[in-house]
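Structural prep section.
Before we set up the soaks we want a predicted structure of the protein with 5-phospho-D-arabinohydroxamic acid in place, mainly to decide which crystallisation condition to try first. Input record follows.
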Amino acid sequence: MDVIRSNQQPAEEPMLLPEGVKIDGDTGEVTPATGRYVKHLSSLRDLYEDTAAFDAHLAAHGDAVAYEVVEYRPEGSDICFGTTIMMPGKIGREYFLTRGHFHAKTDRGEVYYTQSGEGVLLLHSRTGESRSVSMRPGVAAFIPPDWAHRSVNTGSEKLVFVWMCTIDAGHDYGEVATRGMRQLAVEQNGSAALVANPKYPS
Ligand code: PAN
Ligand code: ZN
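Run finished without errors. Recording the tokens verbatim:
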């Protein structure tokens, strides 16, 4: 006969507790944060169209931080959020950008809510459509599932935005690293313009 002992019940997950998280819209600081990382320009070389301009920029200005990501990712939660803080600058005609990615889980979308600065969110679907959403304070960009997304700082100040997504969305950088985005955000006659990426495979 089976003996049922109460101390053999599976341990329960600790209960998640509500918390107010302060987000500074100018600096992008998240308090409390659970993690953060920085991307230096040198790690982004292959993303820019003009590698000669890239090398000249690094030689002249050094390997500065291009962007920083600060996260609030509570263990055991289904959702997470954080900020991305992008420095202003250009490599040749192309503005500073993030790597860009699809989510590893193809049914997971995201929201980007711009706090300060100005930029553009470049997106493309797997079926050949391109879109862009202006990033300016007060605008929440809806990123549907399975759209590649890359942020570009087209302004002269930091671009700070809050991102919010499911904790298991994951990042798939491979496709964008290999093929690039369909569109580039470049300076043309003194202002930001979107042009077709001449290197994107047809
Ligand atoms: C964001 C991005 C962040 C950095 O948190 O990861 O802005 O961009 P890359 O990851 O493309 O370098 C997000 O979209 N998470 O899913
Ligand atoms: Zn994302």
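Observations: Residues 101, 103, 110, 149 surround zinc ion (ligand 2) (CB under 6 Å).
Flagged for discussion at group meeting.
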